[in-house]
């Protein structure tokens, strides 16, 4: 009779396992305490202010006592909660004045406090994936006084940076790297027989969509690397999540969607409490069976099987804002002698504790200065023209309206690339693949194989992550994928991790790729139209972060003929590989000034500035300044438009008619200027000594955070630097001689 009861009970338990997530964690005695689940509210502090207007505590007595993590060790749980409250408002108050990545930091306040309380940095290693959520970490690790300089020239970085602090275990800015780095640290600690080995990777549900994360988890389970992976699950995979696309409006991650559905299912919540009660009633000879049921149930209900099959011990999902649970769980994991890697799954809310962020579609992910009391952005002067990103998006809509084969692809950046605009018009032709640039490129290649015309829209800095796919899957097979590189060049406050300065070098060395770069918004429209019609080779359009120019600038400096100051709304295809002369010696209209018409008759007094992309505006200004400063010189300015193929006829003419050619580009060494120099040298234009050539590029070094203007100044790419380069080559100014 007893055996039949056991058998019947076991069968019932197995049937129930499909919806059960047993309370018994089974990892070194670890027991997960739910305490009311994710809906629980702490009574100690009012987490969400009732405003508006919203305001934080007038004083921060606990935070004032914490300069480094070691100062937290004596705090009790109530003080830790108070510290979290004060820390949240410290972040808010500072970012409202500087701008930055706000909501990601607000979502990990409690996690940051718990990690620094439990672990011993810098001996223990905490690796923040992407690290845009590192603001509370920086405040707790000796950088509170410098925090007002966030993302400014000579200030602290908006990302973790090893050279900035010993508490920044690993530099970041791009995603999906944390698990690999933490695993490498763990293995190194083991090989070096270090006394303690606690390595923690904090990764979001967006970053974990990147394939590198799974490569690392696969290897961690194989090597049995002692490490903790904290999965920070906030349901915000893309920026913004919710953009209409072929996959709907949900997060571009089936894993995130799956765990989100489970977290809100009522049976999940109820059965955990039920399972807790019956667990102790089972006889000892049922414990092993119960353990297997528990493992199976946690996999079915919470997604644990995926991670456990990769060799991880799965704990969760848990409320990532509940310090009552986070602290003891992390302590148990820290003290466990097991070498098996652990995945701790936390459910958090991006923008937590600040209602304007909680309510915003993008959760106020990246913000400029804003009114702390209302959350409203503090707007500066109205830009003279739309952003280049929106110009691109609307241009793509124009060509897609006439061509149903055109599709748009983004890698979790619909807002940054303009794919959110395109997606609202053509949701079924918009594809957000998550943070998966490698997949995005080859996905586009597959589409091209079947006759679609894919536009693969990725930040220049992130396209680096898919470079092998560009070479192997697109270029080698000569597939007509259109690669749209937004944020090409210097990007401002995000600094060196986000500069798009290398694409001309890494794209330019690939055979049979058409590479073009617009100088203004009219040219951007034209180049999108041009790219849409290229069906016999891969193509690249790269353009910088920023806005177009006002109509008066387009007319008076760029010499456009605009009727009623109206900028054309439709693009016109331009001839492949053909540049344009923007300014002849003497200016745009030498007829108005007879002296200008006759100036620089000799080649020795003629100079050419050959611009590629965004620096044309500065080149035209420099030309006017040079001629004003030295009436004997005549300056021609040309817009190359294309790096590949080069307009060799135009360059030949410039080389034959001028004594100096200066190329200007917003890119690194190895880009446009080097292609021009290669053409000039291989064709003998520099052999007789009658032609000097200088490429002006971004220097071979790292340009740190600051405004774009400050970065152009540091790079030496503004009008005054172009003017100085020309005048030095013509020996019109003295060059200081460095003393020994």
From TrEMBL:
Known cofactor(s): thiamine diphosphate; Mg(2+)
Listed GO MF terms: 1-deoxy-D-xylulose-5-phosphate synthase activity; metal ion binding
InterPro entries: Dxylulose-5-P_synthase, THDP-binding, Transketo_C/PFOR_II, Transketolase-like_Pyr-bd, Transketolase_C, Transketolase_CS
EC number: 2.2.1.7
One Pfam family, short name: Transketolase_C
PROSITE patterns, A to Z: TRANSKETOLASE_1
Gene3D superfamilies cross-referenced by the UniProt entry: 3.40.50.920, 3.40.50.970
Membrane spanning residue stretches: none
Pathway(s) it belongs to: Metabolic intermediate biosynthesis; 1-deoxy-D-xylulose 5-phosphate biosynthesis; 1-deoxy-D-xylulose 5-phosphate from D-glyceraldehyde 3-phosphate and pyruvate: step 1/1
Domain of life: Eukaryota
Magnesium keyword on record: yes
Biological process annotations from GO: glyceraldehyde-3-phosphate metabolic process; terpenoid biosynthetic process; thiamine biosynthetic process
Residues annotated as domain Transketolase-like pyrimidine-binding: 386-551
Keywords: Isoprene biosynthesis, Magnesium, Metal-binding, Thiamine biosynthesis, Thiamine pyrophosphate, Transferase
Family: Belongs to the transketolase family. DXPS subfamily.
HAMAP family xref list: DXP_synth
Subunit structure comment from the entry: Homodimer.
UniProt-recorded name of the protein: 1-deoxy-D-xylulose-5-phosphate synthase
Organism: Corethron hystrix
